[in-house]
Amino acid sequence: MKFVFYDDFKPGLLKGDRVVDISDVLVGIEGQTPQLLLEGFITKYEELKAGLEKALQEREGVPVGGVRLRQPVPKPGLMLCGIGGFGEGEGRKRPLDFFLKGWTSICGPGDTVTLPRHEARIFNHEVELGVVFCKETKDVSREEAMDSVFGYTIMCDVSARGVPDTSGFWPQKSFDNFGPMGPCLVTKDEIPDPYDLAIKLWVNGEIRQDYNTDDMSWDLPEKIRFLSEICTLNVGDFMACGTNHHGLGPLQDGDVVEMEIERIGRIAFNVEDPHKRFWDVKENTRP
Question: What are the structural domains of the chain?
Fold first, then answer.
């Protein structure tokens, strides 16, 4: 299933190019914050499943174009982002490493990333596969790690490179709206092989990033095992799997960015720079 939030964070399911409202199916978890609603949906998913399938079968829904899709994970307790993460066609295998990205960076499909006044060397896009967890997980083994995965989504880890007077990843990655996410949260059963997904990103219609998850340096069980030895993962927490850096280029005023991951979907977001800075695309896009 493909879970979405839409308009004022109403819960729904994608049915092709339509959205089916499931507010009445989520008995007992209405009236809470969007994140708590999501966590209730995840926790009670198995007992809700029959009603959700019935709603998908019997309800026509409304066109996606007539609603505003929102970020499917609004406020995770932990937003953990992988550093590197891909062999990049060269067999690279960096040590496993993650950083915390502020959840206030999350925005949804069609939203605008506003570049801050900070004089970064450049602002980059990084399209990544996102993983959402379904239960409390601590010191999990590789063999049981995937039992903690509820589903997958898309995120762009927008990055401000070389922000003056800062160090580490958090201040470069956590500006407001630096984490466009969506269009939906796809349940794990819809993606039997997460290592065979085409990932693409376009800026103003021109392809920038084009890679596949088959190049992932460390598989999901190893990532989850590693994280769970450091901190307890909980329902609704989020992990981004890192990116392939080939094709990274600048984001600047007026850009329209589109991202797509096979079996999940496609979203777009806009870029605005009140300071009208400019980077030459040819000189600043990685081969």
Answer: 2-70 (no CATH), 79-272 (3.90.850.10)
